[in-house]
Each structure stands twice: as structure tokens, then as C-alpha cells.
Amino acid sequence: MALNLHVDGARWRDAQADTLRQRPGLVPVIKGNGYGFGRDLLCAEAERLGVPMVAVGTYAELPGALGTFARDVLVLEPYRAAIHHDLPQLRDTRVVHTVTAPDDLTDLRSVQGDARVVVEGLTSMGRFGMPLSSLPGFVTTARGEGVTLHLPLGSGHVAEISRFVEAVPDNRTWFLSHVTTAELADLQRRFPDREFRPRVGTDLWLGDKAAYEVRAHVLEARPIAKGERVGYRQRPQPAGHLVVVSGGTSHGVAMESPAAAATVRQRAIAVAEGALEAAHRVRSPFTVGGVMPRFAEPPHMQCSLLLLPEGVAPPAVGDTVPVRMRLTTAYPDAVVLS
Fold first, then answer.
1. Residue 208: how many CB atoms within 10 A of its CB?
2. How buried is residue 110: exposed, middle or buried, by Cβ count under 10 Å (0-12/13-18/19+)?
3. In terms of Cα–Cα distance, which of 268, 304, 273, 310 is closest to 289?
4. DSSP code of 226?
């Protein structure tokens, strides 16, 4: 039994090449679950692309990247003396650290005198960084390789980035997240003597949604009568077919982050989904026989029980069915790259 990510390699790589062409100086982001593909595979893809640098999310991800990618590795997590002081990778000259505070920079340089750094500015994202008022002096002290800015999602970033660029006129290289190709072009026109290097993950690896698909194996399919109880919770079911498929909570099936619900429509959908969940009528992300059947009960660790309505032809054991999943929270058993 397996839940696999199937990838059309040629189409997937064409999308990578397009993104790279549209965003010169791109730094691939390879973090977390590797966007469903796994970090090692993405490091190998970055090698194939020939980029000079990749970015990882945390120091915990650093050893794997250093072992599978031959060039520079930028750590997006800020260096913190209280947490990272004793890490053996601090002395690797391929590592580029993110710093946001003078004390942390002093500690890092006490461990590795020529440690390579970028300074992070505190943007409207508000997560971490050096405030704009203190940034110019800190950039001079750090003698780093640039300034990095983590922006909110959406557009409209040019004005905010411009304020940073104008405040630190001596800094040439800017690492930027969540900027569009149009914004990059606008920034380059405004500041032709600066280098803007976009950090890109989702658009690079998941840009062409038709290039990949998650599929699950059918493990069992049998008719059930109305009122028959199944599963751990022994809930009675309507008549139809019980279909057991590979893929459960350990794969990320039905695991979701809190909804933003920013619009009236999104809030209404969230309320409706909550009502369905309370009534044990949650639609699954699996497509079987052209429909998305509901869960017979919450997913198990490695498989899920689905209720296929009467009148829908059941699949055969061994068939595969597509699964709609958010790949940033997916952990497939294997990646099948054609």
C-alpha cells in the first residue's frame, strides 16, 4: 500500500526553468517537507539548475543541504547565540547566516571569525529583523553579503522595499521573499545599481500544478448495508460501498492549517465545513468513480475509510485514485519522477 507523488519530470523541470528565467538571481528555497518532494530531491534539482545558492528554513535542515548541495546554503532562521552556539556547521564556509541583533553577530563571529552573514530587516511582516532605524549602522558593522527582507503575501511591496534600499545606500545585494516578477522589474528600474535576489519556493517547485499528482492505492472495496457500523468509532453508515485507500494522517491527509477566512464567502465556507464536521459528513480529498466521497470516519494513520454512495461503481483493489492535497504538508511514501 502506498500514497505516492507522481511527477511528469519534463513538464515539472520546464516550469522550473521558466521561473528561473523570469527571476534572475533566484535562490531556491528548500525547507520543511521539501514541498512534498523531499529536501534531498530538491537539492539535487537545484544542482541540476546550476544555481549558486539555496536557502533552508532552519539550522536543523542545514546538514542535509550541505551534504547534497555543493554550493552555498543560506539559513533563513536567524542565528541565536542561546540556541545555535555549539552547532558544528557554524565553521563551514559555505554557510550564510541570517543575523538580526548585534549580540548574536558578536557571538557568531567569536565562534567563526569570518562567518558569512546577511542582515535581516524588520518588515511589515513583523516576524523578526533589525528595525529600519537601526539597520544602516548594523549593516556596516556586520560586513555581510547583503540585506534580506521577508515580506507578507500578496503584492504592493515596492514602496516598502524602496524605503529599505534608500535607507542603506551602500548595500548592493538584497534578498527578497514573496515579490512578483513585475515588482522585481520595477525595483531594478528604480535601482539599476542594486542586485535583487528573490528567494522562491512555492512558485519554483509547485508552479505548474498539472505537472504532478498525488495518488493512493485502493486496498479494499466492499458493499455495506444501511446502518452497518465500521471503523474505530463504530458509526452506522448509509448503504453504499466502503472503500479503504492508502493515505492517512502520517501522510498529511486532511491535515490543514487554520483558515484565514478573510472574506465573507471564506467565513461562510468555514462555518459550513464546521457544521458538516460536527455531523460526521466531511468530504474526503480522494476522488473515486468521479466523486469525492465523504470519510466514513476520520483518517487513520496510514489509510482512510471512505463511503462511496449507492450508484457509484466501486474501484478494484490495486487501482489508484487521485488525492487533492496541500503539498507543503504532504509526506508521500515515494516520489515517482518520470
1. 17
2. exposed
3. 310
4. T
Hey, what long-range contacts does 112-119 have (CB within 8 A, 24 or more apart)? Answer: 115/90, 116/144, 116/145, 117/79, 117/142, 117/144, 117/145, 118/74, 118/144, 118/145, 118/146, 118/147, 118/148, 118/175, 119/144, 119/146, 119/147, 119/148
Nearest Cα neighbor of 107 from 136, 83, 128 is: 83
- pLDDT under 70 in the chain at which residues? 1, 256-281
What is the DSSP-derived secondary structure letter of residue 145? S
Residue with cell 467565513: 267
Q: Which three cell numbers stand for residue 332?
A: 508521500
Burial class (CB in 10 A: 0-12, 13-18, 19+), 210: exposed
Least Cα distance to 16 among 205, 276, 267, 291 occurs for: 205
Position 204: which residue type? L
Radius of gyration of the chain (CA): 24
Measured CA to CA in angstroms, residue 9 lies from 104, 115, 334 at distances of 42, 37, 14
Q: What pLDDT was estimated at residue 155? A: 81
Residue owning grid cell 525595483: 187
| Chain mean position to CA 265 | 26
| Rounded Cα distance, 251 and 292, in Å | 18
Q: For the chain, list the domains and their CATH numbers.
A: 7-205 (3.20.20.10), 211-337 (2.40.37.10)
In the prediction, which pLDDT does 266 show? 42
Measure the CA–CA gap between 107 and 110, rounded to whole angstroms.
Answer: 5
pTM: predicted TM-score of the whole model, two decimal places: 0.90
